[in-house]
Amino acid sequence: MTGDPTPFTMTMGDPAGIGPELALAAWRERTPDAPFMVFAAPHILAAAARRAGFAVPIIETGPAGARAAFANGLPVVPLRHAVEDAPGRPSPANAAAIIESIERAVEAVRQGEARAVVTNPIAKATLYQAGFKHPGHTEYLGELAEAWGAPAFPVMMIWSETLAVVPVTIHIPLAEAPRTLTPELIVRTARIVDRDLRVRFGVKRPRLAVAGLNPHAGEGGAMGREEITIIKPAIETLQAGGIDVAGPLPADTMFHPRARARYDVALTMYHDQGLIPVKTLAFDEGVNVTLGLPFVRTSPDHGVAFDIAGEGLANPSSLIAALKLADRLTR
Question: Phi/psi of residue 302, each to 5°?
Fold first, then answer.
């Protein structure tokens, strides 16, 4: 990685999951020109290092001192809220600290103290028990972005060198996806994808492929009419606006190698329609990157893995890929 030595901010994630040991492992495989600081409870990271047998010094610091500290240890900006050290045992008592970590990581970027946000996994169910009102990370980041004075429409893209996908509807029950889907939602999502691929990824003319909702993309209306009444009109609007977009395509034939060669990103109509193929093809290399924000946010494309938390078994590949992508997007 090369680029501006201004550090990234990294969130703690759920402290009962694998986030703390992933942060430690990422520091062990660090490169000097991509420093990062973690907004977390120092004792959680120190305990995780002892359990995993990682010789990683924990250096408490503020954002201003993170870059200098990075060469000697993992810079940790302490949180104000208490955090329980109980790997594998998620608790709503940690919710305030988890949310604080996200808020302060974003604020550090807004203040110019960091150049991007890299988030560790959270368990949404744990936050819901504490009254968290947002469907997930992506939607909450959209609210935090409002502090920048510009309206934000966060769009979740799972990116890898093999495949990039954007689900148009995200963290909602499957039964609600057809009711939520509208031509306006598809058009707004696709325009943000097209813009961010041009501006941040440097793709001169992004090629978008749009999946159908129903089997065989509706089979001409025999298996559903959403392709005719919702998806095709959205595609026609996008094409009229100069965006290179194809579809609606049958989802069962758009992810094999020859099909993937014809587009840069696939827009799918619901969460699992897109995330199953990308996680199957690139589980360890996939990165969750949020488009449509005034800042860069990336994240590993996996969950908290409570079942192996604290055992030093977590694979840091996706978090390291998230750091590399954040570096690429902020050069």
Answer: -155, 175
Distance, in Å, from the CA atom of 169 to the CA atom of 180, rounded to the nearest integer, reads 7
Nearest Cα neighbor of 267 from 209, 228, 226 is 209
Are 195 and 293 within 8 A, CB to CB? Answer: no
Fold of 162-284: Isopropylmalate Dehydrogenase (3.40.718)
Identity of the residue numbered 25: A
227 contacts 213 by C-beta, under 8 angstroms: yes
- The Cα 38–Cα 20 span in angstroms is 9
Tens-digit pLDDT string for the chain (331 aa): 444 478 999 999 999 999 999 999 999 998 888 899 999 999 999 999 999 999 999 999 999 999 999 999 999 999 999 999 999 999 999 999 999 999 999 999 999 999 999 999 999 889 999 888 888 888 889 888 887 887 789 999 999 999 999 999 998 999 999 999 999 999 999 999 999 999 999 999 999 999 999 999 999 999 999 999 999 999 999 999 999 999 999 999 999 999 999 999 999 999 999 999 999 999 888 999 999 999 999 999 899 999 999 998 999 999 999 999 999 999 8
- Tell me the C-alpha distance between 261 and 7, whole Å: 35
The CA distances from residue 146 to 109, 271, 295, 299, 329, in Å, are: 14, 25, 11, 20, 21
Domain with CATH 3.40.718.10 in the chain: 1-151+296-331, 162-284
Three-state DSSP state, 323? helix
- Non-local (6+) Cβ contacts of 105 within 8 A are 9, 10, 11, 39, 114, 117, 119
Topology classification of domain 1-151+296-331: Isopropylmalate Dehydrogenase (3.40.718)
